Amino acid sequence: MQKIVHIGKYYAPEAGGIENVTYSIAKGGVNAGFKVTVVCFGKNRPEDVEIMDGVEVIRTSIDKLIASQPLGLKYMMSSIKEARKADIVHVHLPNMLGALCCLLIGKRPRLLLHWHSDVINKGMLAVLLRPLEKALLKRADVVVATSQAYAEASPLLQDFKNKVTVVPIGVPDVVSPGSGADHADNLPLALQEKLAGKKLVLAVGRLVEYKGFNVLIEAAKSLNDNARVVIVGDGPLRDNLKALIVQHGLENKVYLAGRLSDASLKALFARAAVYCLPSVNRAEAFGVVLVEAMAHGIPVVATEIFGSGVPWVNQHGVSGLNVAVGDPVALAAACNQLLVNESVRNRFAEGARQRFTAEFTEDISVKKMLDTYQQLIAA
């Protein structure tokens, strides 16, 4: 039996785009007959080894955290040990320590670099990491990018184009679009009251600078009076965003919902009239949450981030609208177009759902990754 070892920062049930992708591919590998092991850090779970959906998950403790990069000696030792037993090592980047481990595993395992994103906005740390990344790219057998646009805009990948293949991210399909529309009881009472009789503009993500939620709050000043904005997630900018809402007198129009249960989030997706992604730079490499919104048949308003996969995922004029980065007036105008014009909203909702089923289901994504595995094994 061929062995696949994933090396990542975290793993399910930790929430996050990369964590969800790793979980999906690892399960898919088991279902295809591979022996699959994941080495990760235990962020909110104890150090242990367990079997999840047939996947062996090895969690190690965090010794130190530097600029969102967890560090740990046991992580290094476990990663190297498991990788040396593997047929294919699948490392999820950016992950400085995981990258270093992959240079110490010897020449036998095939090495797949899953290039989720470049190292962005890390200052001197990014400069110091450059030699490590180049050495890793030379060692790699294949580099998986999530979109052609991101691969072509990544400075580091330009000298390794012959190794790059594109596997877009996919997510599980919802059982039936709109199936949670009547499940208002899954929402906190405050949200139920705020949304009663209103049209929901939904945004989900960590409250950090590149997500551009400050732009969405500015845009809310110009949104239709019947619209309400709900931002789901937590992060270091929560107090800043809350102050911005108060500054503009938007307490009755914009709601910071914090982290919500899966049931509450599904209820919001089912309730949303528009999904908005106001991100401002290439740290938003793909926008997995866009795909989740499209699975629910929600039309999307997103930003034209140069060199990101976002404008490709949300196909302008098909699944929604893309507007200039950092422009609250344009963002509000696009949202209003969908909120006010029901025929346009319905057309984009249908286009979003069709684009999801054609490009971004979990089955499509996992199959493309398994095909890449088979090509590596055959080589």
Helix and strand sequence: EHEEEEEHEHEHEHEHEHEHEHEHEHEHHH
CATH class term of the largest domain: Alpha Beta
Number of strands: 16
Which architecture of the largest domain per CATH?
Answer: 3-Layer(aba) Sandwich
Question: How much strand?
Answer: 15-25%
Characterise the protein shown here.
The protein is an alpha/beta fold and 379 residues long. The chain contains 14 helices and 16 strands. The protein has helices at 17-31, 73-84, 96-102, 124-139, 148-153, 189-195, 213-220, 238-247, 262-271, 288-295, 310-313, 328-340, 342-359, 362-378; strands at 3-7, 35-41, 48-52, 55-60, 64-66, 69-71, 88-93, 110-115, 142-145, 164-166, 199-204, 227-232, 254-258, 272-276, 300-303, 320-323. The strands form three sheets. Strands 3-4-2-1-7-8-9-10 form an eight-stranded mixed beta sheet, with helices on both faces. α1 packs across α14 (362-378) and α3 (96-102) runs parallel beside α4. The chain starts with a strand and ends with a helix. The relative contact order is 0.12.
Topology:
Elements: E1 3-7, H1 17-31, E2 35-41, E3 48-52, E4 55-60, E5 64-66, E6 69-71, H2 73-84, E7 88-93, H3 96-102, E8 110-115, H4 124-139, E9 142-145, H5 148-153, E10 164-166, H6 189-195, E11 199-204, H7 213-220, E12 227-232, H8 238-247, E13 254-258, H9 262-271, E14 272-276, H10 288-295, E15 300-303, H11 310-313, E16 320-323, H12 328-340, H13 342-359, H14 362-378
Parallel strand pairs: 1-2, 1-7, 2-4, 7-8, 8-9, 9-10, 11-12, 11-14, 12-13, 14-15, 15-16
Antiparallel strand pairs: 3-4, 5-6
